[in-house]
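seq as requested:
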Amino acid sequence: MLAWRVFQLADSAFPAGGFAHSAGLEAATQLGEVTTAEDVRAFLASSLWQVGMQALPFVGAAHDGQASDDALDALLRLDAKHDALLTSHVANRASRTQGRAFVATCSRIFDDPRLLALHDAVRAKKLAAHFAPVFGATVAILGVSRRDALAVHLHLALRAVASAAVRLGIVGPHEAQRLQDLHAPTLDAVLVACEGIAPDDAAQPAPLLDLFGSVQDRLYSRLFQS
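struct tokens:
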């Protein structure tokens, strides 16, 4: 059976809120650090490794946790760990915004009482609802395999930055698609290297991206929330 839900979740039409964020690209552009297609290509590579080492451990662990009897408690602990890891207030806020939007969207689209319970926990503020852990938990409930969950999360990160580059006028739509295709080997490398990392070993290998993103709120004008 084909993984139709994987295709649906990866579709740009799925209203998960990711396109409201640039992962620091807008700030990097205004600071003069990213101005060309080649700069975007380097930014994308750093961004994917950042997601791989920082977010994928929580996606994977949350996916695994859905098989336990105390799935919600396990998710609460992972969510709190991820909250502590995201020290930049902009990145932290963006992660929570995306996570809440994703859970709310999935609870409305897919008929599963576990999703409604998860959404209720988010609304009751039992969870900060960071994107990586709630994504892993949600797609596990939807029957998506662990590896597919990690791959979709990486794909969404790549697509969001490429789309932001188009809207910022750095590259055109065709060049953005070309950049995504060129990063297929990067996606493979990140997935292989990071799929087994535990949350306690998560790290931020690209500190400059964190610094770029942290100035988002101080930009004179901006298109994105982060």
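Residues 21-217 form a domain with the Urease accessory protein UreF fold (CATH 1.10.4190.10).
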